[in-house]
Amino acid sequence: MKRAGSRSRLNKRMRHLIALLGIAGALCAQSYSYYPRHNFTFGAGASSPRAELRGLLVDRPGISVAYGYRLANYFQADLGVDTVFGAGQIRDYIETPLGPSRIRDYQFFLPLGGRGIIPLARGRLLISGGVGGAYIRYTELLRQLSDYVRLDCPECNARSGWGYYSLVSVEVFVDRGRHLRLGVTSKIYRAHTEGDRLGPVPGVRTRDHWVHTFGQVGFSF
Fold this sequence. Notes:
221 residues; mainly beta; Porin; eight-stranded antiparallel β-barrel
């Protein structure tokens, strides 16, 4: 009876040990496969016009704001907006009831797509590549002289069109909780735009290429 009781207690302890090992293994696996769902990114860098825009527009600084929802460990849906400042080098003025106001040009890019992700170093290093559609708009905007009075700009021109983009990105989490990210992204846009004449760009349909290279900081949770 004692031997049977000893064996019973031993078997019980073994079952407890196996259960604890299983829980520990599950927790380790969960820790390894963890990834943040929501990813906000702010970037800044340089943008370069190519194709039929080469020689008409110039390289200029730009910024980007983006949100990515990580559907799985290896895939993320993306949307955002990139803004380039003054590639058309427009520096005109218009007389307003509040005095002369400056007109400047901006280039806006609205990408919507997804990316595949290769997580390395237990998910701390992310190498990704993505594609998607994009809406592009070049516009002249009037500098408002007052926060309380908004003036229209009938002389401001604009042109726009649809296309697509592709990107490659390298990011690294710099904290243990995988919340703060630093990285660099290179993005290529290809599209056709048409509309008004915008500075040196004629008022006809053009084939537009852009290359954006942005350093970026992000927050994930």
